[in-house]
Amino acid sequence: MAATQKAEDMREENIAAWQDPGIAEKYTRTEAATIPFANIILDKGSIVSKITQHNCAINAFDFGCGTGAVTAALYEKVPKEHWPNVKVLGGDISQPMLTYLQERGEKNGWTGLTTQIVDGANIQLAPNQFTHIFANAIIFFLPLGALSNLFELLQPGGYIGMTTWAALNWYDHVQRAVNNMANPPFFPPFEEVRAMLQHNNAWHEPSFVKQQLENAGFQNVDIVVEKRTVAVGTPEHFCESMKLPLKMFAGQWEESKRDQISKEVMEELKKVMLEVAGGEEGECYMTMEGIVGSGWKPVGK
Ligand SMILES: C[S@@+](CC[C@H](N)C(=O)[O-])C[C@H]1O[C@@H](n2cnc3c(N)ncnc32)[C@H](O)[C@@H]1O
């Protein structure tokens, strides 16, 4: 299959996977893994002090917002009396995620929040409008040009904070599950899985992230690599969150056997995670190693 066709197929599979009506409910548990990095993104942009000490109004774009990890962290950090100075657009390819976030915002009184379908591969938003852009665990799903498009959306002097993964710690559990099977299906080596997830780009390397931000035009680019161990729920919850990455492997299995193999892998994975967590109600942990890149749009651009 030609590389461009494969990339296009992967893009369509990725978009389809996020349209599952139950995706937001499932993702709220996975959000535990992205929240620590949402906080780092916000701290690096000194957003709270901008609002509380300098009375600046924030007009932020939470890009690939999902269930709103960054938006929630922002409202948590900013004292309520300053909320009228906060505007956030949550943009995502997934309507179920946006509906969830909109309801979350209404419940919590985040009156500055609006949501909108945005496809990161074809962003149709007015340029020079945002003071801040947050892109937590999204950029690696997209073609390389996405960062330049985000640059255009920022006001001069605006801030971007983004996260990619330096490591994929769930891979070992899934591999162990596959190896335990009587007839293990083909399971791609780690490097191949990472390449599939990242469109063949080296988003797991801090120097690559820095280079991409600089290529897009950002200045004062800063990179931090941080590890956080997070609780991601019971073995059942962990397996649920693995359904999405598993769809990617399933593409390599014979179509007529795909559903059956996926089911068997899930059953083995559940056994592995029961052992790791010490039972049905035990907690599963993941060590997330994130690369947080941040930068600023030059004032004169
Ligand atoms: C790993 S989640 C991260 C969600 C959130 N930023 C967080 O910190 O938890 C990735 C999100 O990117 C969204 N997404 C995937 N492909 C996209 C695209 N082409 N354009 C916009 N959003 C996309 C998914 O729907 C999902 O909500």
From TrEMBL:
GO terms for molecular function: methyltransferase activity. SUPFAM superfamilies: S-adenosyl-L-methionine-dependent methyltransferases. It comes from the Eukaryota. Residues 59-181 form the Methyltransferase domain. Transmembrane segments: none annotated. Coiled coil: none annotated. Keywords: Methyltransferase, Transferase. CDD domains: AdoMet_MTases (cd02440). The keyword Kinase does not apply. GO terms for biological process: methylation. PANTHER family: TRANS-ACONITATE 2-METHYLTRANSFERASE, TRANS-ACONITATE 2-METHYLTRANSFERASE-RELATED. This is S-adenosyl-L-methionine-dependent methyltransferase. The lineage of its organism: Eukaryota, Fungi, Dikarya, Ascomycota, Pezizomycotina.
